[in-house]
TrEMBL record:
Domain HTH cro/C1-type: 83-137
Record's protein name: HTH cro/C1-type domain-containing protein
InterPro entries found in the cross-reference section: Cro/C1-type_HTH, Lambda_DNA-bd_dom_sf
Upper classification of the organism: unclassified sequences, metagenomes, ecological metagenomes
SMART domains: HTH_XRE
Family annotation (PROSITE patterns): HTH_CROC1 (PS50943)
CDD domains: HTH_XRE
Organism: bioreactor metagenome
Gene Ontology molecular function: any one: DNA binding
């Protein structure tokens, strides 16, 4: 009820038969009053990190100062513009991020423009590929999402 999302879809996500988009996952975490950054960091460590083990992911995490995101016409997801800030802050190209995350370059472009929202596991892989602090990134995403929903 708090999410205004059909119960059956929530059940499919919880039983693992469906993967939510990153912003729905963020809303689900916030709905149960969990710490978004800690949740996504733990999810990364327990699933994506193992799946990408041996890939060329940065081993140290970089702290980034994010700029506020304003409302943008036609934007489907704020995840992408925030991801672009993270990628640019560490001086990484879209091509390098896509390759490191195992993600299609065209899709990375659409994600960063806010035209496409990745599933939660792809989002984690993309953020991890940049080398930014995962907890910090998802806390910032939560704050930006909350700020935009109040506008």
């Amino acid at each position: 009820m708090r999410l205004q999302y059909h119960t059956r879809n929530i059940q499919r996500i919880e039983d693992g038969s469906r993967q939510p988009g990153v912003l729905l996952a963020l809303r689900m975490v916030a709905a149960v009053d969990a710490d978004p950054g800690k949740f996504f960091e733990t999810l990364f460590e327990e699933s994506v990190g193992e799946a990408l083990d041996g890939a060329s992911l940065p081993t140290t995490r970089v702290s980034v100062t994010y700029q506020p995101l304003g409302a943008v016409e036609g934007l489907k997801s704020i995840f992408g513009p925030l991801l672009a800030q993270a990628r640019l802050a560490v001086g990484m190209s879209q091509t390098a991020m896509a390759k490191s995350a195992g993600y299609n370059l065209r899709n990375v472009n659409a994600v960063e423009k806010g035209q496409q929202e990745p599933g939660v596991m792809s989002a984690l892989a993309l953020v991890a590929a940049t080398g930014v602090d995962i907890r910090e990134f998802f806390d910032q995403l939560h704050q930006a999402s909350a700020a935009l929903s109040k506008e």
